[in-house]
Structures are given as C-alpha cells and as structure tokens.
What we know:
By secondary structure, the protein is mostly helical. Helix content is 76%, strand content 9%.
Amino acid sequence: MADSKRTLIRFEFSETSSADLRGKQSVRTTFKISEDAINALSLLATQMGIKQKSLFDHLMEDTEVLRHIASQAKELDNPSRRLAKTYVISRKTLDTLERISLKYGAPRDALVEHSIGRILPLLSREKAKHEKRKEVAGDIQHYLEMGLSLMAKVEENIGEDDPVFQEVISMIRGVKHCSESIDAMVERGRKIEEY
C-alpha cells in the first residue's frame, strides 16, 4: 500500500511539473501592433534589464484586466498603421491571450496593443528616473575629480608610500568603479530619451 501511494504521488508530481514546463515553453508568434507599442515594449525591457518575454508574461498574467480590455473589443480594434512583429513568449501567455480573444471575440492584436499601453506610465516614470540618473552621474564625476585632486595633494604632502595615501587610492578606485557602473546604466537608458 505504501508503495502505491509513493507511485501515485510521484505520478501526480510529474504531471503537474510537465504542465508547468509546457506553460513556460517558449513559442514564437507574430502580432500586428503600432510602432509606438513596439518601441514602448523594447524600451522598457532594455531600461529594466529584463527580457521582453518576461514583460509579456507579466502583462498577460492578470486575466481580469485582459477580460476588461477584451470586453471593449469593438472600440479597441484600430488596424491602421500596425506593423507585424514577431516575439518570443511563453506558451501559457499565448494560450491565455488566445482563450480570452476567442471568448470575447476580441482581436488578439488589439489585446496586445492595449495591454502594452498599460506600461506607458511606467515608461514615463523610468524616463524621469533616467534624467535623475544622469544628474547623479555628473555629481559622481565631479566627486571623482575632487578625489583625484585630493589624491595628488596627499601624494605631494605625505608621499606615495604612506598608508594614508594607499587608503585614498583605494577610495578613489571605489569611486571610479561606481562612476563607471552608473555611466553604463545611463548609457543603456539613452534610448528612453527619445520616448
């Protein structure tokens, strides 16, 4: 009896795992959406350092919002100036999208377009953060320049063999590393300036 329970438990676990894995399986699908939606998705994924697939999964996991969008399907569909764009998304996301599209008679592309529209406020906030990051990068650069000046002064007055000078060098290296990391983040976010 104990062996049959273990077998049953193992079987149930493998069935659940298989279904979960199939849901996470990546599939390619093409949507016809506006250039603005394409750019918004790309910019936000780049800015946040995540894959577009993860962004799609996040947008489609709230089925209540999708149903609400789908219930207004007649008002949503505006096929003018849409571009075909192929994305890699999870099978679960595609299944959810197609199920709601069929149930409500809502065009799949319109659901995607308006779901992406939900991230536009987030994109605006990221753009504002980007501007603040640029300010911080400038401040850090100024701080680094002051540190380099201090380092030269310490070297001249105390000498490069002194432990205080070695500590100052260590501090400057840390600030320089921090400055380079922040500059890289700012550079990665440059595209958002066009939004």
